[in-house]
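Example 3.
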Amino acid sequence: MTSRTVPTGWPGIPRKYVPVLVTAGLFVAMFVAGGIRYQGFATGQIVLNVFIDNAFLLVVAVGMTFVILAGGIDLSVGSVVALSTMITASLLNDGWNAYAVILLVLVIGGVLGLGMGAIIHYFEIQPFIVTLAGMFLARGLCYTIGTDSIPITNPTFTTFAQSAVPLGPDLWITPSVLIGAVVVLVAAYVLHYTRLGRTVYATGGSEQSALLMGLPVARTKIAVYTISGFCSALGGVLLSFYMLSGYGLHAVGMELDAIAAVVIGGTLLTGGTGYLFGTVLGVLVLGLIQTIISFEGTLSSWWTRIFIGVLLFVFIVLQRLIGTRRTGWPRLRSRRVPVPAAGADD
Amino acid sequence: MSRLLRHRLFWPFVILAGLLLLNLVFTDHFFTIEIKEGHLYGSLIDIARFGAPLILVSIGMTLVIATGGIDLSVGSVVAIAGALACLRISLLDDQSSTGGVLAAMALALGLSLVLGAWNGLLVAGAGIQPIIATLILMVAGRGLAQLITDGQIITINSAPYKVVGGGYWLTLPFGIIVVALVLAISAFLTRRLALGLLIESVGGNAEASRLAGIGAKGVLIMVYAFCGLCAGIAGLMISSNVSSADGNNAGLWIELDAILAVVIGGTSLSGGRFSLGGTVLGALIIQTLTTTIYSIGVPPETTLLFKALVVTIVCLLQSPAFREKVFHRRRRPVTAPPVAEKKVKVSL
């Protein structure tokens, strides 16, 4: 099938950019609507606050984007975030050096991801189940360390938490946002300009074809889960900056937020299609929903969940419509791996 | 012996037996079942009684997974059903009137059926991947449940409603009877009638089933609606057991436990095959594990660690790739996974 550039009415815009553009349009529309409705909403600091309050989610969602692009899913991210805050807090209380703790936590996250990736690939168990077990494991380890919230008083961490980076008149961000931005830029570079990134897209598009092309599928599949584990651990470190505590009940359900951000950002859950920039927009949209609900004041917090559900529905149907035009009619099963020709074994 | 070893429920059964034996060592009178005041009491009865909601949800989940789908929204449906039933009952003038309670329960079950059918419509009608289609309700459903309860925990005092989750009938806990009934009905429908064949055929290849003249969409919608209904009944049981509805925490993570139960029971997540007996076994393993952890005095904080361990062991034992690599046993051609999963080596 040739890649047609005649989309649903906007001439000249390739079809593949439509979901990301719609998300961007939605973000702008929400921002404008909020600015008209509430006083003091339409400022640059509101957008920056969304980044400040969601820097950890952004980093976690970046890792999730890698996994989903490669056709997998990682349910363990929220628990790994919680585990990271817990390890950080308890080691800092024992008097460890802050940077050594951060390094150790990042390594632990990466190793957890590596282990899950290896089990998924070598023992051919569904990612859903393996990362579910990983989720239980990480959450269980949290409670083994302690069932109470542990406050962080380490000077390095409090400095990170309380310092502000000025960006101009009345505009500021936290160091966490800078770290998040660096992660996004590095991840975008890896996805779009390196061999690993191309293999991630190829694996997600069709694992069988990627194998037949001689691409290192095993390495890639394990790598994406390692990246996701690493990003979750980094998200956990950022969350400890934000919360200044470690707690086993931190980040409950964050895997859902991360998946929702990736889907709203226009990445197909079947893998192979999507952009990291879309994920950033997805996180921004989720954050802006919370901001609007807090500005409204009368709406209760559970409306956040309902709005996110509605948004998910709209975006999934939108993707479906775009996909349907391409394939003719909706297929019941979205992915069937073709049977390789006989004799392809060597 | 080798036939027994090859039976697909062999390993789950060994795990369950092992857990029960562990209890025998650590707990006195674990297998004793006695009759007090005309009711059956005992640890085994407790496992079945507290496991009843999970078994119900897992039965519905089995059929959904057999069609190659998955339903993440059951936990939310559990919360919604419990919340709606408790709200209606709390609005009654006389909370103990059987008619009012039945009407409230019927309304809650009707809503669960509709929610399930909504999932089915998204999957079959709009052709959305099941995991995403049900993710919508999973995320929004918790919000809906809290909307119904207005963010509060609704507490009720209704004797007829209490029966559903905590009552006894014919010396047996009522929950066990409900589970047996649902299990019998679904086993009859799927194993004595052609329905099971249709479900497996849709799970094997939906497009081919459609071309073969099977109303694949109808089957899919029905299966998701049934799963919603099962979750609704489980929701009534859970809320009735504690006489209150908590939109935030009722049925939290039950979807994951149910999927685990199904997978432990030997039903493949790729669809096309299912085993109701295996699912019940899987759900019982999970419940026994929880009970065992409490009874042998392991701190409850580590429950999740044990769960992770057991899940990993059961899944690894069932994975053909793992058995081949670790036990150096060749895969048998009959039950080998479809060619699509086979590794292809490419020489350049």
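Strands of chain B lie at 34-36, 39-41, 153-155, 168-169, 172-173, 244-246. The first strand of chain B starts at residue 34 and ends at 36.
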